[in-house]
């Protein structure tokens, strides 16, 4: 499972998760064992304090109880100090604890009347505790020690108290019980340890899956918000922050504070869903974006919260448009190819007809209309074929300084303009090397410059195009600026759409082709309005 994690996802937090369970014995277990022994000591003291509670009370062994119990209390106090100071180690403390308990419980059993008192079961508890917390031969050692103690107590009682019927049978049965308890406890110990190992491994896997899920959610382009029943944001990914324009939002913030329109939409959706099973679909405005939200309830109770999905309506429209254009491109390329042949024949016939000296002025005017529209159709066909035949980019390293100077000189020569019309501005000490397809970049800049010359006339001033190059914060920018009237704000969002044009002689494909070529090369092409007038088209290269 760990190999599935992206690099860096679990490296920071993996050390906080145990890859294996904490071994026995440990300090936590020893503290619980101490509390159990303390409770047992208090219970034994209470039982022995009641007159007639045990058959041995009133006999000569009874005073031994009040010697053993204070000593046991003192040993508990020493054990508490050892736990606080954590010395000696856990294994040594457990060995001493089980040994002391076996000796103390044997003496109490003897003082209470031997194996007939039933206190031999306390030894079984000690053996079981040792077997559960210590693996290997030590568990059998504690069982052997308890069995020897019981048999020794029976032998001592027979010789020194002159018992008529020795209790060797009961002592032997207790010894067998101790070994049985030790073996069963060992089996239980192994199963518990196996379950703990599996649980620890599953914990790591679940943590890795949680990190992987978080990584996937944060990497999604769809905005995701989790909102509880109190309309507080519990989680949101990077895309949601960008779509809402709230990069500093943290979990716990009120939804109404960071996105009032989204909060109002959520309240309306809750009201509508209470009356019907339909979930309303609508669009909301967040900043300059038009978002399309949808929701999914968390749990059966609607007060438990919802997951809100945010999609950029502009991106959805663009994606739908790309699908349409992809299918339309194949069709239009075929149509354009078939139109080209008869169009060539029409243009050639019009050219031959225009050479006739017998044509009247009105006929020549009509032929001129045929010629101009034929050229426009040819330009549209060329653009469509260019889109359908566009080759894959072949990036290469380009030094923008000399490359742009050569491009500007070629552009001035081909369009009959000088430096006073098309100028290049670049700092001499700026090294701007970008990796891009040179043909694509040339086509983009030439297209932008031709548009600037065509639409850059403002009043009586002649058009002026300026190409600027600058390097800022790890990026290289090329800006094509003009001093024209600019583009109206309501039309600025449509200039990159195919076949959108404000000129009667334009095809509406120039800027669309330029952006497509830029995106193919991983370059950002955007329009920026200038003040008080003029246009700026910026190409941003990541270097």
Architecture overview:
The protein has 543 residues and is α+β, with helices and mostly antiparallel strands. It has four domains: 193 residues, no CATH class; 95 residues, Beta-Lactamase (2-Layer Sandwich), CATH 3.30.450; 68 residues; 147 residues, 2-Layer Sandwich (Heat Shock Protein 90). The chain contains 15 helices and twelve strands. Strands 2-1-5-4-3 form a five-stranded antiparallel sheet. The longest helix has 52 residues. The two termini are 36 Å apart. The N terminus is likely disordered.
List keywords for this structure.
543 residues; alpha+beta; Beta-Lactamase; five-stranded mixed sheet; 15 helices; 12 strands; 13% strand; rod-shaped
Sheet with the most strands?
5 strands, antiparallel
Q: Tally the beta strands.
A: 12
Order of adjacent strands in the largest pleated sheet:
2-1-5-4-3
Q: What count of domains describes the coordinates?
A: 4
Q: From the alpha-carbon coordinates, what is the Rg to the nearest angstrom?
A: 45 Å
What share of the residues does DSSP label as strand, in percent?
5-15%
Give a short overview.
The chain is of the alpha+beta class.
């Amino acid at each position: 499972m760990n190999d599935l994690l992206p690099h860096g996802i679990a490296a920071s937090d993996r050390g906080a998760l145990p890859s294996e369970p904490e071994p026995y014995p440990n300090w936590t277990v020893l503290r619980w064992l101490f509390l159990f022994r303390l409770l047992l000591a208090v219970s034994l003291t209470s039982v022995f304090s009641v007159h007639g509670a045990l058959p041995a009370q009133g006999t000569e062994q009874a005073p031994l109880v009040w010697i053993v119990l204070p000593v046991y209390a003192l040993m508990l106090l020493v054990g508490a100090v050892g736990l606080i100071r954590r010395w000696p180690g856990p294994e040594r403390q457990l060995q001493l604890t089980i040994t002391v308990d076996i000796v103390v419980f044997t003496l109490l059993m003897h003082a209470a009347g031997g194996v007939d008192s039933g206190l031999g079961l306390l030894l079984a508890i000690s053996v079981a505790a040792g077997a559960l917390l210590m693996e290997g031969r030590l568990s059998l050692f504690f069982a052997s020690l308890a069995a020897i103690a019981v048999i020794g107590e029976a032998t001592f009682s027979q010789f020194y108290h002159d018992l008529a019927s020795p209790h060797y049978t009961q002592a032997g049965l207790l010894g067998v019980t101790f070994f049985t308890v030790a073996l069963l406890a060992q089996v239980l110990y192994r199963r518990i340890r196996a379950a703990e190992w599996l649980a620890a491994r599953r914990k790591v896997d679940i943590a890795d899956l949680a990190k992987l899920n978080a990584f996937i959610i944060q990497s999604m382009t769809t905005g995701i918000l989790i909102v509880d029943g109190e309309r507080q944001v519990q989680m949101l990914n990077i895309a949601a922050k960008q779509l809402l324009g709230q990069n500093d939002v943290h979990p716990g913030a009120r939804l109404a504070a960071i996105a009032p329109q989204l909060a109002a939409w959520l309240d309306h959706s809750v009201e509508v869903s209470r009356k019907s099973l339909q979930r309303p679909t609508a669009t909301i405005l967040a900043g300059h974006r038009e978002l399309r939200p949808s929701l999914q309830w968390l749990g059966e109770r609607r007060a438990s919260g919802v997951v809100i999905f945010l999609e950029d309506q502009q991106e959805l429209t663009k994606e739908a448009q790309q699908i349409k254009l992809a299918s339309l491109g194949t069709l239009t390329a075929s149509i354009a190819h078939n139109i080209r042949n008869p169009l060539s024949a029409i243009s050639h016939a019009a050219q031959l007809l225009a050479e006739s000296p017998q044509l009247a002025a009105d006929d020549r005017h009509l032929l001129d209309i045929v010629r101009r529209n034929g050229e426009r159709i040819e330009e549209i066909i060329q653009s469509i074929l260019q889109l359908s035949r566009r080759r894959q980019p072949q990036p290469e390293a380009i030094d923008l300084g000399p490359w742009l100077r050569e491009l500007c000189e070629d552009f001035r020569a081909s369009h009959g303009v000088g430096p006073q019309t098309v100028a290049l501005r670049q700092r001499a000490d700026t090294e701007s090397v970008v990796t891009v397809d040179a043909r694509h970049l040339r086509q983009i800049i030439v297209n932008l410059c031709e548009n600037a010359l065509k639409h850059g006339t403002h009043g009586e001033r002649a058009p002026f195009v300026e190409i600027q190059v600058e390097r800022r914060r790890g990026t290289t920018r090329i800006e094509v600026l003009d001093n024209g009237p600019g583009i109206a704000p309501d039309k600025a969002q449509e200039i990159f759409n195919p076949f959108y044009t404000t000129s009667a002689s334009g095809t509406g494909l120039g800027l669309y082709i330029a952006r497509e070529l830029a995106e193919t090369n991983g370059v950002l092409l955007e329009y920026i309005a200038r003040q008080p007038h003029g246009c700026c088209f910026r190409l941003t290269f990541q270097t």
